[in-house]
UniProtKB/TrEMBL annotation:
<dbReference type="InterPro" id="IPR018253">
    <property type="entry name" value="DnaJ_domain_CS"/>
</dbReference>
<protein>
    <submittedName>
        <fullName>Molecular chaperone DnaJ</fullName>
    </submittedName>
</protein>
<dbReference type="Pfam" id="PF01556">
    <property type="entry name" value="DnaJ_C"/>
</dbReference>
<keyword id="KW-0143">Chaperone</keyword>
<dbReference type="Pfam" id="PF00226">
    <property type="entry name" value="DnaJ"/>
</dbReference>
<feature type="domain" description="J">
    <location>
        <begin position="4"/>
        <end position="68"/>
    </location>
</feature>
<dbReference type="InterPro" id="IPR008971">
    <property type="entry name" value="HSP40/DnaJ_pept-bd"/>
</dbReference>
<dbReference type="GO" id="GO:0042026">
    <property type="term" value="P:protein refolding"/>
</dbReference>
<dbReference type="GO" id="GO:0005737">
    <property type="term" value="C:cytoplasm"/>
</dbReference>
<dbReference type="InterPro" id="IPR002939">
    <property type="entry name" value="DnaJ_C"/>
</dbReference>
<dbReference type="GO" id="GO:0051082">
    <property type="term" value="F:unfolded protein binding"/>
</dbReference>
<dbReference type="InterPro" id="IPR036869">
    <property type="entry name" value="J_dom_sf"/>
</dbReference>
<dbReference type="InterPro" id="IPR001623">
    <property type="entry name" value="DnaJ_domain"/>
</dbReference>
<feature type="region of interest" description="Disordered">
    <location>
        <begin position="253"/>
        <end position="276"/>
    </location>
</feature>
Length: 313
């Protein structure tokens, strides 16, 4: 059963429009998906939007108060239309959270199109601020695949989607530093409304493609840094490729494979807060086919070194 819209916003049933607006703004700031990363926050935000869209419109609110969750199926002038045009001996009744709309029709319906009169029950309804038979378009969602570097840079992209009406191409402004699962809203580009009702919105959900060079954890980027044995033993400054360009890593002496070094703020950008970090993981690489002099030096090192990485304790 759908939740009561007044409970969703935390207001009483006799709350004024100012109280409803203030409650929505307070909760929307708390649960907006760009601010609250809890997976449940997005659904909570949708619920708040739906409740506010109903209760902020006086006409829609009156229908909701009278018919409960069935309010979308019944026109506001339902009883007047039945009494004036059909000679009905009954009317619609409903209650918040009720099971449906009951009709008490008697005879005398010659020339009255009941399907037209109760169009909402058969899949048609009145959109807010529209005429009877006008239904707002549905919101739609599609995936937007991006590479790590594309997501890092952002920018204008052309996106072509295939739907029931064929292919459509959109110009999309991808925010810099978008992350996997983040949604980009294209207002009015969703399902078309009927009559004079508005179209829905199109939401593009970002999917970051796997990349052999980078691994993402939220806004943090993990990257492997290959180094030579002597760089690892003696320390060095080594270049590290990142989605934003090449940076310099100060490799401490005595760094073994698997050691992670953090470069603060070198991860995915965050327009609304702190940028992510870059974690460089050391990987010691040896020459696959050492030359004659290299082999001599390795053999000399093996003869004089007392280091044994397999010793424990």
């Amino acid at each position: 059963m759908a939740r009561d819209f007044y409970s969703v916003l935390g207001v009483s049933r006799d709350a004024g429009q100012d109280d409803i607006q203030q409650a929505f703004r307070r909760l929307a700031r708390r649960y907006h998906p760009d601010i609250n990363k809890d997976p449940a926050a997005e659904e909570r935000f949708k619920e708040l939007n739906e409740a506010y869209s109903v209760l902020s419109d006086p006409g829609t609110r009156r229908r909701y108060d009278r018919f409960g969750e069935d309010f979308r199926q019944v026109p506001e002038d339902y009883e007047e239309r039945v009494a004036a045009g059909a000679g009905a001996r009954g009317g619609a009744r409903g209650r918040p959270g009720g099971a449906g709309v009951r009709t008490g029709f008697g005879g005398g319906f010659e020339g009255v199109d009941i399907d037209d009169l109760l169009g909402g029950i058969f899949g048609r309804g009145a959109g807010r601020g529209g005429t009877w038979g006008a239904v707002p378009g549905a919101d739609q969602e599609a995936e937007l695949p991006l590479g790590v570097e594309e997501a890092y840079r952002g920018g204008r992209r052309s996106v072509t989607l295939t739907g029931p009406e064929g292919e459509r191409t959109y110009g999309v402004d991808v925010p810099r530093g978008v992350i996997d699962g983040q949604r980009i809203r294209l207002a009015g580009e969703g399902g078309r409304g009927s009559g004079d009702a508005p179209s829905g919105d199109l939401y593009l959900r970002v999917r970051i493609r796997p990349d052999s060079r980078y691994r993402l954890e939220g806004r943090d980027i993990h990257v492997a840094v290959p180094v030579t044995p002597w760089e690892a033993a003696l320390g060095a400054t080594v270049p590290v490729r990142t989605p934003g360009g090449t940076v310099k890593l100060n490799l401490p002496a005595g760094s073994s494979s698997g050691r992670r070094l953090r470069l603060r703020g070198e991860g995915m950008p965050n327009p609304r807060g702190r940028d992510g970090d870059l974690y460089a993981e050391v990987r010691i690489m040896v020459p696959p086919e050492p030359g004659e002099r290299e082999r001599e030096l390795f053999e000399e090192l093996a003869a004089v070194s007392t280091f044994n990485p397999r010793e424990t304790g």
